[in-house]
Amino acid sequence: MTYRECYEQGREVLTRAGIEEATLDARLLLEHVCATNRNDLLVHGDREVAVEQCEAYRELIQKRASRIPLQHITGVQEFMGLEFAVSDKVLIPRQDTEILVEEVLRELQSGMRILDICTGSGCILLSLLHYSNDCMGVGVDISSQALEVAGRNGERLSRERVLDYTFLEGDLFAPVKGKFDIIVSNPPYIATAVIETLEPEVREHEPMLALDGKEDGLFFYRRIVAECGAYLNRGGRLYLEIGFDQGQAVRELLETAGFTEVQVVQDYAGLDRVVHGIYFGE
Questions:
Q1: Average confidence (pLDDT) per 10 residues, the chain, 282 residues
Q2: Would you say the pTM of this structure is higher than 0.85?
Q3: By the 8 A CB rule, do 248 and 263 touch?
């Protein structure tokens, strides 16, 4: 079977299964199996694919057709131009979260200390360290399994450029000591009742710990905003990723807690995505 025939077969299966990104996912899975890139379909579509690779590709296509996320099949996801290992123990890094990282990078200066609460795969903290100079970071997560993934990502990225980071296990600020210039978090923010309406890829395969923001989705924002003052240097900044309908509520939390210059930042779709502010203490 040729490379293009394999691809067309895979795309057809995913289309019939109702996969929204069938065309893209079929190509990416074939590239994963054959260790090729996007140009191969155009330039080398008529080359023969080994029988073993065809069989492996069909198996992965069936997994994707059953709504297993593409990233759980390939084990990786690109974020901020970097490759991160992922598993079903961490939230898959999303392009929307790049808005959060970009906002922090606007104010991040050399030598700053960064605290990442609910670090998951470590993609936020490690990206910030990768694109800054001489910064030090601490990532916290309640899941030891998530921290295992984050640790692997840190080790791999540190082979390219030495990064100064530590990952700690615990509930939000519980294991944290010292103060920081930047606190950043993408906490669980989906209201419990909404989770059952999400796509199967999210609802059935991503960790509930990383999704469930309790009754109104604001549980962790309340805790983070209430507790973070003890860990922020004077003039330090708090950055939070939010759900599209949570901008005003989270903004009010920060303003009530004494944050100044509070801003709500929209993503590329024009939806509220990040809230941040400056803390000078009470």
A1: 94 96 96 90 83 96 97 97 96 96 97 98 98 97 98 96 96 97 97 94 94 95 97 97 96 96 96 97 70
A2: yes
A3: no
